[in-house]
Design a protein that fits this description.
Elements (H helix, E strand, L loop, with lengths): L1 H13 L9 E5 L2 E6 L1 H9 L4 E4 L13 E2 L8 H4 L10 E4 L4 H12 L5 E4 L2 H7 L7
Parallel strand pairs: 2-6, 3-4, 3-5, 5-6
Antiparallel strand pairs: 1-2
Length: 136
Amino acid sequence: FLISLFLLVTLTACQSSVEEITGKEVTTADGSYKNITPADLDTMLKNKDLILVNVHIPFAGNLADTDLSIPYDQISAPENLAQLPADKNAKIVLYCRSGRMSEIAATDLVSLGYTNIWNLEGGMVAWEQTGRAIEK
């Protein structure tokens, strides 16, 4: 019993909560966004208070719970901005296959005044490398 209790306490202590996720800040010419790991995003999705956006082209699959698919190079088009929250402080998490397209989209959104942009560092490749599934 004591061993089980110890393991439970240890494992619980090792899990991060959404409030603890700070990401790695990436500074751009117009502000900043935050890079997160697959584990960070997995934790954030448990309390889904975000908009999850796949910006990869061509389509290569989705993470579960993806809200929108917007091509990275068209994210600032008026019809695509209209799909995003009007509140520029809303939490938006971007991802693509490897992380490069979502970095570009994150920089574009920051330049438009969005202040709560998060990027899945390494994209779907990193997500899959940690044993998480992609929906094809």
